[in-house]
Amino acid sequence: MTMFDDRERAHEAQFAREEEMAFRITARRNRLLGQWAAVQMGLTPEETDSYAKAVVQADFEEAGDEDVVRKLFGDLTAAGVDTDDGTVRRALAEKAIEARRQLLQSE
Fold first, then answer.
1. How far is CA 37 from CA 12, 20, 58, in A?
2. Which superkingdom, per the lineage (predicted)?
């Protein structure tokens, strides 16, 4: 029975590691997205840092990426940046790849 308990604990530990990594990738992606959008809006470095944190926080509003896309698109449009939903979603995909790469390199 101990062997089965050990296997179960190993699977649970692996699942926890994968979930933590997914959370870290999403948080880093959102920070990178915030920085990207801040450049588009012409924000100062201080404003960029604050805005990137706000984008990370926006992801906690609902499950999935729609809350982040909605925030970015709304803020970019309000700032007079000529953009569309597709541009924001492409940036989201690109920053997800970049975030994963950065985290894997840092380990």
1. 37, 26, 14
2. Bacteria
